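Lecture 7 notes: from sequence to structure.
We start with the chain below.
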Amino acid sequence: MRTLYSYPDLFGVADNNPFGLKVYAFLRLHNVEFEHRHILDTRSAPRGQLPYLVDGTVTIGDSDAIIAYLDERCGLNADATLDSQQRNLDLLVRRTLDDLYWQMSYSRWRDERYWPAFKAALLETHPDITAASLEGAREYNRLRYHYQGIGRYEPDQVYARGMDNLRVVADLLGEQPFFFGAQPEKIDAALYGFIANIYFYEIDTPLKRYVLSRPGLVRHCLAIHERVR
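Predicted structure tokens for the same chain:
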């Protein structure tokens, strides 16, 4: 049985990290059987990052690499109908979402206004997680933000960048049910990974308020959520 290792669930979403949720959604959308294990300790993960997939003797890290592996291994032929322009747009949108990760993560682990509620939610949902481990993870993330650069900006500047990312994705999605038409593709799993972790997040951040202001993003999120839960 294939096993997906990813961060813990939160607020009814299968993984509170967008990259793990992206892989989870892809697996569910394509009816691939797998076991889902939630972990917090990344020491055994490839490159020390989650998610990762174990398939027999094969271990794959990185969400895009996992999806590419599953596509080939399971003969899914995902995105087969996309033309070259759509494939280019897929890449650009996924790279935009990769940048959005930093603003999302900042709102949870760094911003003093939201950190206490996030910490309390994790501890309440997962009694096996300790407050000490979360404080250690917070310090680890603080250093990451500093060296990545986002930690050197004021919160309003951080969220302005995040809302720019959300605006572009929302404008490109428009009124379509899914990104490239009537059926979800890889890009829709990626978008769900991020938007679900903002929309269902029960803490009122600037990113959540912006998502709520864009009906297309909400509609897309709920449509994928219904298919994968």
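Points to note: The first helix runs from residue 18 to 29. Residues 34 and 41 are 21 Å apart (CA to CA).
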